[in-house]
Every structure is written in structure tokens, then in C-alpha cells.
């Protein structure tokens, strides 16, 4: 049996998107007009025939649960397999595990019962469109203990500074895992491992008093075990700051970047909301902008992303901005280099201008 089960480990992901993560975890942050960041990880798994997916959550997961519901949008509302949201449940007084190992230890029942030989463990901050079956083929062909996934980036940005990097030899074997600033092999926080081997690593780490599965069971053993490196060559975005969120969102206005992420043969799924088509009033002017359904536009929008249900008043001007769901920009308002979270209201003739290097961010439901 070559089946894979998925674990999306949100335990070690910090809420680093400032105002955008005041009321939600990073995985639930809206992205690309109608999606959430976690949609990409789940969709990649579903498109790779992974139909049993567990999500380890620790805090601020109400918004995430509201979005995912029973997993219907990804065909995960099923009797065999499906979607499992696993919040903290630390009831064993003899449990000595800590860190994200606590999640693995306390949810070992899921790991034991899931009908799969392999586990694909991933975070949510790396946006991509990848087929994990290709990863499995390389994993088996290399006879590796663990296969880690990386992207060789053409240009290093600030978000790559603290990401783990890989040193890889000619046989695609990982010889070192580190944080060297100039190394371009960025680890995508995804790895494939045999279920039986994961179990032994978790038990060993807990016995040693360790707290992090990747750091203590994989990185620390990089010279002792066979770690294979799978190079992902498609469109990729690492989002671990407001600046990286803003810059990578803007890249989607490039047709090549957009089509490389949203492929017909491997679509990205999300929660369905039946909205009316967007209405463009006479005199409105929209250029190079992603516009979701349900918007009402009377003003001018350029180089921006509008989520569902946004209202843009007459003579309002929006440039280089991200406007999330159900925001209202009244007549005469001017927004440039701005990120508005959901349900914000910008009053008549207000002006908000940020910098491209550091956009002006307005938290959810604020009125200005």
C-alpha cells in the first residue's frame, strides 16, 4: 500500500502577520481574493489523492474552523478518512511530551488508525501547487528515511532570512540543514516519512526531553540518517510577515505567476459562497486587478486585489492595495499601498497611504 495521509502542523507557526492575525491564526488569513492560506495545503493534498488530513491547532482557530466546516469544499466530508481538526487535549497526567511533539504524542491514535503507509507533514505558510505523489516516487526510489521538499529561489527576500536552508549533494541527498543567509535552497516546511518511522522518532524525542519534531528528529540527525531532497520548481511564496504577504499577493497580478499557481489540472479549492456577479457602474475604471464576486465598483481601482462583496464608492481611488471581504470605501476616499482586513469602512474623502516596503494595515472591522 502506498497511501499517504496528511498532517498540517500549525503548532509551530507564529502569528506574525500583525493586524491580520489579531483574531485568527495565520492559516486562516485570506489570500488571493477568495482563498485562505490553508486552502493551498489542503488542495495540494486532495489533488495528490490524500483523503485523510489532520490539522494540529493550538490557538485562535475559531475562524479556521468556521472556514473549513466539515471539509465539504475539499470533498473531505466522508465516512472513511476525511478532515480532522485536532485542538489541544492535554489530559494525560503522565505525559512528559512538550512543544509540537505533544500534538504528535497525544494524537498518536489518529496516526495509528489512519489507513496509510506514509505521512506528509506540512505547515501553511508556503503557498504552492505541488503533487505529493511525485514526492513519494522519489522517496521510494531513493530509499530515504525522510524526504524534505525545498525551493531553489532565484532571489532571496527578507522572509527567507530565518527559513531553514538545505545543503544538497549531486545525488539529492541532504548533507546539512542550517540557516545560512546566502543559501538559496529554502526548506518549504514539508516532509514525507514512513508512518512506522515517525512513530519511533516521536518516542525517541520525547524520551530525550526534546520539543520539536523537525529540529530534534530530522535536522539534528541530518548527518546520520538518509534525508532525500525533493526540489519543487513551480510558483512559490513564503508568507511569514506582512511585507511578504503584500509582495506575494501583488505578484498574482502577473499572469504568469497567477496561472502557475492556479492550474486547471490541479485546482485550488475553497469554501463556496454564492455571491452575485460584480457590478461595474458607468464611470468606474478597473485596471490590472483581481476582483472577486459580489463587489460593487463605482470608482477607480488599479493594481489591487478585491475580495468578495467590496463596495467602492464614486470617485474613490484604490491603488496597490488589498481590500478584504465586505469592506466599504466611500466616495472620494483614496487608498494606496493599503491592506484592509474584513468588514472595514473608510469614510468619505479619507486618505490612507502606506509605503510599498511597508503597507498601511487596518485591522478587522475598523472604521476610519
TrEMBL record:
The Glucose-1-phosphate adenylyltransferase/Bifunctional protein GlmU-like C-terminal hexapeptide domain, residue ranges: 285-355
Domain Nucleotidyl transferase intervals: 20-153
Biological process (GO), any one: glycogen biosynthetic process
Presence of keyword Nucleotidyltransferase: yes
Taxonomic superkingdom: Bacteria
GO molecular function annotations of the record: glucose-1-phosphate adenylyltransferase activity
Keyword Transferase found: yes
Keywords: Glycogen biosynthesis, Nucleotidyltransferase, Transferase
InterPro entries cross-referenced by the UniProt entry: ADP-Glc_PPase (IPR011831), GlgDAde_trans (IPR011832), GlmU/GlgC-like_hexapep (IPR056818), NTP_transferase_dom (IPR005835), Nucleotide-diphossugar_trans (IPR029044), Trimer_LpxA-like_sf (IPR011004)
Family: Belongs to the bacterial/plant glucose-1-phosphate adenylyltransferase family.
Protein name: Glucose-1-phosphate adenylyltransferase subunit GlgD
Originating species: Paraliobacillus quinghaiensis
High-level lineage: Bacteria, Bacillati, Bacillota, Bacilli, Bacillales
Amino acid at each position: 500500500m502506498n497511501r499517504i495521509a496528511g498532517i498540517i502542523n500549525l503548532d509551530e507557526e507564529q502569528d506574525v502577520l500583525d493586524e491580520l492575525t489579531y483574531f485568527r491564526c495565520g492559516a486562516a488569513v485570506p489570500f488571493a481574493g477568495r482563498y485562505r492560506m490553508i486552502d493551498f495545503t489542503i488542495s495540494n493534498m486532495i489533488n495528490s489523492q490524500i483523503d485523510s488530513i489532520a490539522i494540529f491547532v493550538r490557538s485562535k482557530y475559531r475562524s479556521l474552523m468556521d472556514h473549513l466546516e466539515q471539509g465539504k469544499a475539499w470533498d473531505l466530508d466522508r465516512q472513511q478518512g476525511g478532515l480532522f481538526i485536532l485542538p489541544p487535549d492535554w489530559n494525560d497526567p503522565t505525559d512528559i511530551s512538550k512543544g509540537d511533539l505533544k500534538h504528535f504524542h497525544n494524537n498518536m491514535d489518529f496516526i495509528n488508525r489512519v489507513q496509510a503507509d506514509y505521512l506528509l507533514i506540512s505547515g501553511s505558510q508556503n503557498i504552492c501547487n505541488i503533487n505529493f505523489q511525485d514526492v513519494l516516487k522519489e522517496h521510494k526510489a531513493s530509499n530515504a528515511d525522510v524526504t524534505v521538499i525545498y525551493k531553489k529561489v532565484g532571489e532571496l527576500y527578507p522572509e527567507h532570512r530565518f527559513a531553514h536552508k538545505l545543503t544538497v549533494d549531486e545525488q539529492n541527498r541532504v548533507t546539512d540543514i542550517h540557516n545560512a543567509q546566502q543559501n538559496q535552497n529554502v526548506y518549504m516546511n514539508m516532509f514525507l516519512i514512513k508512518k512506522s518511522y515517525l512513530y519511533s522518532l516521536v518516542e525517541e524525542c520525547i524520551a530525550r526531553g526534546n520539543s520539536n519534531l523537525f529540529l530534534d528528529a530530522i535536522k539534528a540527525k541530518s548527518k546520520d540518517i538518509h534525508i532525500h531532497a525533493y526540489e519543487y520548481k513551480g510558483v512559490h511564496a513564503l508568507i511569514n510577515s506582512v511585507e511578504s504577504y503584500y509582495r506575494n499577493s501583488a505578484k498574482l497580478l502577473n499572469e504568469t505567476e497567477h496561472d502557475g499557481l492556479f492550474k486547471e489540472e490541479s485546482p485550488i479549492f475553497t469554501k463556496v459562497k454564492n455571491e452575485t456577479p460584480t457590478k461595474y457602474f458607468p464611470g468606474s475604471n478597473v485596471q490590472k486587478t483581481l476582483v472577486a464576486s459580489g463587489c460593487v465598483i463605482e470608482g477607480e481601482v488599479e493594481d489591487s486585489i478585491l475580495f468578495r462583496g467590496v463596495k467602492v464608492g464614486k470617485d474613490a481611488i484604490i491603488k496597490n492595495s488589498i481590500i478584504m471581504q465586505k469592506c466599504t470605501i466611500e466616495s472620494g476616499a483614496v487608498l494606496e499601498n493599503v491592506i484592509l482586513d474584513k468588514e472595514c469602512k473608510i469614510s468619505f474623502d479619507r486618505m490612507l497611504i502606506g509605503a510599498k516596503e511597508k503597507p498601511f494595515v487596518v485591522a478587522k472591522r475598523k472604521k476610519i
